[in-house]
Write a structure and sequence with these properties.
Distance between the termini: 75 Å
Structural class: alpha+beta
Largest sheet: 7 strands, mixed
């Protein structure tokens, strides 16, 4: 029986392989530990509202009152724009699989009060957008069953309701330049601001005086099913709602 000799060359190859293996393991451990938390919140705001007794705003905004705002969303993700891909660590594949499924029913009212959506751990990085899907509520016990957005209130004492059942992906960025979600091992707070100013603010291009109570039930319904004849207005509000949504850092 022949005995194989362990030559210096074999020892060298073995040591190199062991070093590479340990390097990969350490890299994996480092990436797992290199994470922080994002405390994700939401709020709804209206800025630049018309003063009382003003006739300058379209749709007679001098007596506007929002009593309820509910939004149903799902599949929340954090990401970076394509032109900033260099910030992404190629080893952070766990990020690509991260998704907050939901659904999440956001019960908001106009003002600056924020509500909690979720607190999630993601890899350290610089993120500048949050994307999610408007989702039709499928809970038969929910007050917005079959809807993705519902806004209630009154204008000049006349009750109105806007709702849509649209299911669309929304990509929300920061409106302020050079602002990002910086995750660096600690907890950072980011708020999705549903800004209703373009819809209900004084500078709005919407003339709510054109909305009609087509079925004469005492409520102006602005919805895609067009029961009151306001389907075009409902589509415009939905689009402005999506365009006016942005991110803020606390």
């Amino acid at each position: 029986m022949k005995t194989k000799k362990i030559t210096p060359m074999i020892i060298a190859i073995f040591l190199i392989a062991l070093t590479i293996s340990c390097s990969k393991d350490n890299s994996t451990l480092t990436n797992v530990a290199s994470a922080g938390n994002v405390d994700l919140k939401a709020k709804a705001t209206i800025t630049n509202t018309a003063p009382k007794n003003s006739s300058s705003a379209k749709g007679l905004f001098n007596n506007l009152n929002i009593t309820s705002l509910k939004i149903n969303i799902k599949n929340i993700e954090f990401g970076v724009n394509e032109n900033e891909g260099e910030h992404m660590n190629p080893n952070d594949s766990i990020y690509h699989d991260l998704e907050l499924d939901g659904p999440f029913l956001l019960d908001l009212a106009s003002g600056n009060t924020t509500i909690d959506i979720a607190n999630v751990q993601i890899p350290n990085n610089i993120y500048n957008k949050v994307q999610f899907e408007l989702n039709k509520n499928m809970n038969p016990n929910s007050t917005i069953f079959g809807k993705s957005i519902e806004i209630k209130g009154d204008i000049n004492g006349i009750p109105f309701i806007f709702w849509t059942d649209a299911e669309e992906e929304m990509k929300v960025n920061f409106s302020a330049a050079n602002t990002n979600i910086v995750v660096n091992g600690t907890t950072t707070t980011t708020t999705i601001n549903f800004d209703l100013s373009a819809i209900f603010g004084a500078a709005s291009t919407i003339d709510f005086s054109l909305a009609v109570d087509g079925n004469a039930d005492g409520i102006i319904e602005i919805s895609p099913d067009n029961v009151d004849g306001n389907a075009d207005l409902a589509d415009l509000i939905k689009n402005l709602f999506e365009e006016g949504t942005d991110l803020e850092n606390d």
